[in-house]
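Friendly challenge for the regulars: who can give me the structure tokens for this chain first? No prize, just bragging rights.
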Amino acid sequence: MTPKLGANDRVTLYLSLVPYLLQHSPVSVTEAAARFHVSVADMRDLVRKLSNLGIPGTEGYYLPNDLFEINFDLFEDDDVIDLLNAVGIEATPRFSGTEAATLVAGLQFISGVVDAEDRPSVTALIQKIGLGASASPANILVSTPEPPIDITALRHALSAHNRVHFEYRNARGENETRTVSPLRLDLIGDTWYLRAWCHLRDAARTFRLDRIEGLTETNVAISPEHQALELSETLFDVRDTDLAVVVRLAENALPLIAEYHPVIESAASEGAVLATIRFAHLTNVARCVARYPGIITVVEPPEAIRAVANYASDALNGYAKP
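First reply, four minutes later:
Bragging rights claimed.
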């Protein structure tokens, strides 16, 4: 079973498909599908939609030569792709120095995330961007935070589509044994996360790498169903939890807690609002408040207020003189 194509996959495929067709068309749909590791049905869909893509003219609308053109007689009758007109291929965009520096910085960051064998390709792309810019890009150096554990086995499991096994310490400090189907590695800020299907919880879960110990790759393959999962852009989905916490904060401070997806309930006083945030457990409530001292005040429920008070008391006791 071929994994379902997402929007990002389609964009990436189009960027590769057009140069491929310029070099190889006419080519059979079956051969093109095998080349890009997609189903024949998906390749036909990509080709049909390609004819609706292009670059609008100076008047803001499309003329016949502004769109990619496919020989649809050959395509429909013989299942062969023949690209007759390619749009914008002759125009060579040139990045400004600032644009090139931004792209180079992003690629430098990515080079720390990709596998070692892929890093030379990233380096070559950085060099091409510098040569193609209208001005020399600023000398920017961006480093990627090192993973807190050796992720060699995890990278191999991701590429081989195998399950992994590890010990995990959750936010409550409890240790659990987990077997998961790894789907993606994410680096948010300086924290590494593993997105995976957890076979203990029978649901998609996100794991912090700094809480994982003893990770090993198994010889059990990830099911096609789990490989095809579309992950949400939200790392932690706590919409189904019962721990709803009401907080008070200044309205202009709402962007600071946007990642917690607050739901505004009402205005508390001049310039302040009441908002509800859902948490997985009380420990995270205290950590959220500690992260924004003096900005967030927990209003209810009582157990959340106590959790914050206990967290602050424990922290204060840590500074007590012997």
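The first helix runs from residue 7 to 24. The two ends are 64 Å apart (CA to CA). Your move, everyone else.
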